[in-house]
Structure formats: structure tokens, C-alpha cells
Amino acid sequence: MNKVIFVFLFLFTCHLSVQAQKYRTAAGVRFGGNNFGITAQQKILKKTTIEAIGAVGGREVSATGLVEQHFPLLGPGFNIYLGAGAHVGHLKDNGAFYGGDLIAGAELKLPIAPLVLSFDLKPTFHVNHEEWGGVGSGFSIRYILVKEKKEKKKLFGIFNRKDNDRDKRKSRDEERGGWFKKKKKVEEKPKGFFKRIFDK
């Protein structure tokens, strides 16, 4: 019963999150299987972000950089993402190591708070390490630092078209002198008898 309630609340939250605020920069904490760290995410293209992860484990510390491509599922509030990158670190007994990373995850922006929740799987490949690699998982909570500005869109372009027509009419009226502005005709006064003789 509890599982059914949890699934229902999760799907309901996903439905609401379609209208959630987009973001450009978010940072927070990441909980891994054997480590704990911080994470920061920055949007660089429409559906592309870069992420930096700093992690501390029992015998090692590491820093990872990733480029991630996002794919919306239920609108801009819920999406999955895939990415790749590299890491460097220091192992307690072996010293420095480095390697490559892949990542696949799901991300949810909460509609009631400026928070982003995500869960990911991150395969790693090590060089100069006790292990050749492995597959880790992590849960991240990020706080939205910089929101993305919303663009005002006209409904089917109707109002936008009306505004353009109004501007065209206004400029046309100004060129013609306005609707109520009429050109005054210059009336010639009749010349006198002597003036007509001398003009000839």
C-alpha cells in the first residue's frame, strides 16, 4: 500500500513539475554509495549542461567534470540525461589517478521549491588505481541559484499580428498627416483692377 501511495505521489509531482521554473545554474550535495560530495550544474546550451562533482570517500578524493545532454519526458520539469567526462583524484596508498566517466540519470525540478532532484548511474574507468573501474550510483539535491528567464509568447501569434498591424497603420497615418489632419487649400484673393493692369 505504501508503495502505491509513493508511486502516485511521484507521478502527481511529475505532472505538476511540467510547469516548473527552468534554471541555468544549480548547486548542492551528492550522496554516493561509498562517498559524499558536492555538485554544481551549469546550462550552456538549450538542452546541454556541464556538471562538476567533488567527492570524498574512505580512502580517496576525486573531482569529475561531465557534459550532459537532457531529453524531456513530461515537459521541461522531468527529463533523463546522458553524458560523459573525466576525473582525477588521489588514492590513499597509490597516489594520483585519473580516468573516464559515463553517466545516465533522471532529473526532476520541484514545482513548489527551487530544488532539483536527480538520480544517476555513473560507470568509471580508472588509470593508476587499485581497481580498473566500476559502476557507482548517486542521489543529488541541488538548489537553483540562477533561474532562466521566461519568454513571453503570444497565443498562436494572433495578438502579435494585431500589434504589427497597429504599428503599420500608425506609421502610415503619420506619413499621411493623420486621419483628421487635412491639407488646407490656399485660396487666391482676387486682384484689384489696377494691379491686374500693372501685372500685365
Keyword list:
single chain; 200 residues; alpha+beta; Porin; 2 domains; eight-stranded antiparallel barrel; 8 strands; 50% strand; disordered N terminus
How would the blueprint of this fold be written?
Blueprint (H helix, E strand, L loop, with lengths): L1 H15 L6 E10 L2 E11 L2 E10 L2 E13 L5 E14 L3 E15 L5 E13 L5 E15 L10 H19 L16 H7 L1
Antiparallel strand pairs: 1-2, 1-8, 2-3, 3-4, 4-5, 5-6, 6-7, 7-8
Q: State the major sheet.
A: 8 strands, antiparallel, barrel
Number of helices: 3
Average pLDDT level: 77
CATH class of the largest domain: Mainly Beta
Low-confidence stretches: 1-9, 14-21, 154-159, 179-184
Which architecture name of the largest domain does CATH use? Beta Barrel
Proportion of residues in helical segments: 10-25%
Strand order of the largest sheet: 1-2-3-4-5-6-7-8
Count of all domains: 2
- Give me the strand/helix succession: HEEEEEEEEHH
Query: In percent, how much strand structure appears in the residues?
Result: over 45%
The name CATH uses for the topology of the largest domain is Porin
Shape: elongated
Category by helix and strand content: alpha+beta
Count the beta strands.
8
Radius of gyration: 33 Å
- The N- and C-terminal alpha carbons lie at a distance of 115 Å
